[in-house]
Amino acid sequence: MTPRSAYVPAAGFELHVTEWGDPKNPALVMWHGLARTGRDFDEAAEALSDTYFVLCPDTLGRGLSNWAKDPKADYSYRVFGDTALGMLDHYRLGKVRWVGTSMGGLIGVTLAAERLKGRITHLVINDVGPDIPAAGIGRIASYVGNPPVYDTLSELEAWLRRNYAPFGDNTQEFWRRMTDTSYRRTDDGRYTVHYDPKIVMQLTYHKADLDVWDAYDAIEAKTLITRGENSDVLAASVAEAMKGRGPKPDLHVVPGCGHAPTLANGREIGLLRSFLAD
Fold it and tell me: Is the pLDDT of residue 96 over 80?
């Protein structure tokens, strides 16, 4: 299955969306983490496109989507939610399934609790919770806010492998695609990461985005939590608390990885397929 690249007007911005599968099929949105892009889901999106119309957007400020007009205001769950609704309106979608990794999971939580309540029927929250440890936030902020610049893509790939080592044991093809979809050139022709460094402002100016217990408790969608065994973003105690509150989801722990499971291997794709089918 070959993906299609679309540029979608959404809430006054242009959102890049990677499409997979037949638009006549039920819709599945797969939303990535803080400093990543929709291409992270290639393996899962390709596999699931036999059943679903899969949409993998690049969040505002990442990948091929617009950067913010006002970074302090626009890099927030409120505006990301605006663009998500704009995307669904563009495709004329009613009910959708949602798989969100890290930030994408919390965007899904806030939408499922309010503006898309009753429209998000299935919600996968991948390695994030309503309460994030300070150490995890600090680790992510330290590299997101200080993007590297290299002379070669080989050096950038080595940096990605180091900083995303918690992703676990992935294939050479995975890391090479991650490199190919994670860079942009600087004005002097060197290589850096694909995002606006100001996306880190969300962690400073929108701290309430990271405390969403009220929204979580309001979710009515069928919900699944996936957690990396060694995650420093979704603490085991928080995951256990989530099991008994709100949508009272099942919890699946992915062995041998931290933040966050890539959902790229056959076992994890099978888990998604089974959960989304019911």
Answer: yes
Give residue 261's Cα distance to chain centre.
Answer: 11
Residue 264 located in a structural domain: yes
In the prediction, which pLDDT does 204 show?
Answer: 87
User: Which residue do the tokens 């973003």 mark?
Assistant: 233
Q: Is 262 helix (H, G, I), strand (E, B) or coil?
A: coil
- For residues 240 and 242, give the distance between their C-alpha atoms in angstroms, rounded to a whole number: 5
Domain that holds residue 43: 4-133+210-277
Tell me the per-residue pLDDT of 102-124, one tens digit each, with 9 for 90 and over.
999 999 999 999 999 999 999 99
| Separation in Å, CA 230 to CA 18, 235, 254 | 30, 9, 9
CA separation, residue 46 to residues 36, 38, 73, 88, 144 (Å): 18, 12, 34, 20, 28
Give the pLDDT band of residue 13 (cuts 50, 70, 90): very high
